[in-house]
Amino acid sequence: MSLQSLTTDELSTFKAEQEAAYAALGSAGLSLDITRGKPSPEQLDLSSALLTMPGDDFRSAAGVDTRNYGGLHGLPELREIFAELLGVPVDQLLAADNASLSLMHDTLAFALLHGTPESPTPWAGQDIAFLCPSPGYDRHFALAEHLGFRLIPVDLHEDGPDVAQVRQHAADPAVKGIWIVPTYANPTGAVVSESVAAELAAIETGAPDFRIYWDNAYAVHHLTAERVKTPDILGLASAAGHPNRPLVFASTSKITFAGSGVSFLGGSPENVAWYLGHLGFRTIGPDKVNQLRHARFFGDADGVLAHMERHRAILEPKFAIVERVLSDRLGPHGVASWTQPKGGYFVSLDVTEGTANRVVQLAKDIGLALTPAGSSFPYQTDPRDQNIRVAPTLPSLTDLEAAMEALATCVLLAAAEKAQTP
Ligand code: PMP
């Protein structure tokens, strides 16, 4: 029975039931955490073989001693594997160190200090704004804010950012870019469609050096048998006459080891040359030993996909628990909606408007850690105070089930409190 259709007495009874359930959870001494999208220990174990690689055979296919300096582009054999998976020509894809977030940081820092190939002047000292499809990845927004950019929210739909809003804002020359997670977005699981990608590639922008930060962090992180394909943003942008607009990012953080993987940067030939030109002052070369062991571990692109199937076998039951508990416990009451992602690491839960902060506080008080409400929005402010990001990957199945049951009680209690407030 939906909360809206309850009489005053029924609502009081319902609230008393939730309070009793909540009190019982409080005395259970929970210590649960569904805050961050980290791989579970079982997932990390899938890549344990890396720990003893490459062993004594540390030469690359071309005979390079990977222990030594050099090779700014990254190891060709690993770039080939990921070029195929990411749909980027191999000579336009660089392999780097362990974090794609560092590549995003560095490309922005280079733009601030030196400008991009088509910037009239370096970005530093200018009023700069970035478009932030929301809800989105908190670290994207935090990085842009940290660098002094203004954050402009735009709506994120199931097929990508709201193109009309992007077009309107991008006409302003201060707007220099947009964050996009094209496949299985963090946290909603949205997938950018071909037509949205084509429009983004072609939009007339006020800034000549407008950039699409195309962060394909979850390109191969499927949760169903369907391997959703990411649009070819580099090809679309070239065809639209804006070859330098997209910068493509990815990493193996959620394929092998989150702290010891390999990151990738793809772009137009001019962008790649621009990046390498600055990178050469920052480093003499990436960790090629790590790149070599990754190339050997996977073998080829099919090896990566087979490895991701093993991740899926671990993750699918976890996402199934989230779906089951939310639909069993919240479904009948009309107090929340949530995503059913086909891949990625998160479920995005919208609770009753105006109660997300309350839910997070209620959960904290009984030993359940949730990502702070508002985290997925620019300036950590959710205008509707309704979104909570659920990260089911790290906990065990038993802990996850307990966490979801507790979360459901907190959502229902907060909704009942709200419904009673005149
Ligand atoms: N992009 C997105 C969308 C992510 O969700 C994450 C991890 N939470 C990252 C990037 C971080 O990637 P990396 O470890 O390569 O820095």
What does this structure look like?
- Keywords: Aminotransferase, Transferase.
- One of its GO terms (molecular function) is transaminase activity.
- This is Aminotransferase class I/II-fold pyridoxal phosphate-dependent enzyme.
- It comes from Aeromicrobium alkaliterrae.
- The chain has 422 residues and is of the alpha/beta class.
- The chain has two domains: 157 residues, Alpha-Beta Complex (Aspartate Aminotransferase, domain 1), CATH 3.90.1150; 232 residues, 3-Layer(aba) Sandwich (Aspartate Aminotransferase, domain 2).
- It is 41% helix and 13% strand.
- The chain has 13 helices and 13 strands.
- The chain has an eight-stranded mixed sheet, sandwiched between helices. Strands 10-11-13 form a three-stranded antiparallel sheet, with helices on one face.
- Helix 12 crosses helix 13.
- The longest helix is centred in the C-terminal third of the chain and has 30 residues.
- It is globular.
- The site of 4'-deoxy-4'-aminopyridoxal-5'-phosphate has 12 residues, from helix 4.
